[in-house]
Write a structure and sequence with these properties.
Length: 176
């Protein structure tokens, strides 16, 4: 019976040795694999792209994919806003040239353009925070009211009409 126990303990000792060796080998291979992927991640953008593709196939959304989607969405919004602004400027040309209505049109379109510029600055700041000045420099702008514009026109009407009269009569402009 003693021989059976000795043989059994010898086999268990060998099995314990084999399991310990296998565990150490697996750990060593895992460390080497992690080191290799870290080196590849720093050295090769193709490797990063391949890992991202595999992650996308697995249904995972990588940070790179989220950033790309955010960039596409911001560029789309900026493009739409620019197209609307161009159409608004073109359409407002006639209204701006009309007496009395033109001042209100200019003030309204300017306010709208400031709001669009603010939204564009916020989108750009979200895309590249380090590259854009503070969006509040644009978002904090307030257009003048229609009444303020009419007041300014009234205050300077004499100055402007005198300059126009001098220009029409060929007289030299006053010295500064």
């Amino acid at each position: 019976m003693r021989g059976v126990w000795t043989a059994l303990l010898g086999a268990l000792g060998w099995l314990r040795f084999a399991l310990r060796w296998a565990r150490r080998s697996v750990m060593l291979l895992a460390v080497l694999a992690l080191l290799a992927t870290n080196v590849l991640a720093f050295a090769s953008s193709a490797f990063i792209g391949a890992v991202s593709s595999v992650a996308a196939l697995a249904g995972l959304k990588t940070a790179q994919a989220r950033q790309a989607a955010a960039r596409r969405e911001a560029v789309k919004r900026i493009g739409q806003r620019t197209a609307r602004g161009a159409a608004r400027s073109l359409g407002g040309t006639v209204a701006q040239s009309l007496p009395f209505v033109g001042v209100a049109s200019v003030v309204g379109i300017t306010a709208w353009e400031i709001a669009d510029a603010c939204a564009t600055m916020q989108d750009l700041a979200a895309l590249a925070p380090d590259s854009v000045d503070d969006p509040e420099k644009v978002c904090g702008l307030t257009p003048p009211t229609t009444a303020a514009v009419y007041h300014e026109i009234g205050a300077r009407a004499g100055e402007w009409s005198g300059a126009a009269w001098r220009w029409a009569s060929g007289a030299p402009p006053p010295a500064p």
